[in-house]
């Protein structure tokens, strides 16, 4: 009699249950292993796709930002160029007006000058050097040229130079004040320039000639202003 034939019904049932359980466990293990590998592969594929999408999005975002930055820079450069063009045109117009005003003032100065008989006699004798209002005006012109040179220094930005150029030269105190406020001229030179401008104006409608004291004062003021001239 074989082993299987010798088994009783309960023994056969128990053995069958045991074998069935073993088979079920094996099936579960095989299924878990199979599906786990499939899930891992699927997760890896999804992760790889997400990484590729993220890389593409980052590259696209960087390209968009770069393009937007270049566009904004181009717009900004164009705006600055337009503003500088307007300032240059305005500066040239103001300079033309200032030159015309300065020439008109000089013409008035010359017309208002009436040399005294004493001055004429001294000039004819040539024994003593006489410094007249013409010379005083020339001294102021030298100070004026120094102020203009200071206002056009290359170290000053273009917009500030344009601001200086727009100032009315009939009132030099405004330009002098701006230069002093911007620290492009020393306080001492600014004060000297204002005093020299006032001294020059004081003789525009006066008949008498400058005194030695006036000339000593003008020479001192001129020396102070010329010290602030930019180096060549």
Please report the number of helical segments. 8
Number of domains: 2
Shape: rod-shaped
Largest sheet: none
Q: How large is the radius of gyration? A: 48 Å
Secondary-structure element order, N to C: HHHHHHHH
Distance between the termini: 129 Å
Strand content: under 5%
Provide the low-confidence segments as ranges: 118-128
Structural class: mainly alpha
Question: Helix coverage percent of residues?
Answer: over 70%
Number of strands: 0
Q: What is the arithmetic mean of pLDDT?
A: 76
Keywords: Membrane, Transmembrane, Transmembrane helix
Transmembrane segments: 12-32
Task: Please tell me about this protein's structure.
With 232 residues, the chain is an all-alpha fold. It has 2 domains: 12-79; 113-226, no CATH class. The chain has helices spanning 3-6, 9-112, 117-125, 133-151, 158-165, 172-181, 187-202, 212-226. The longest helix is centred in the first third of the chain and has 104 residues, at 9-112. It is rod-shaped and about 155 Å long. The relative contact order is 0.08. Residues 118-128 have low confidence and may be disordered.
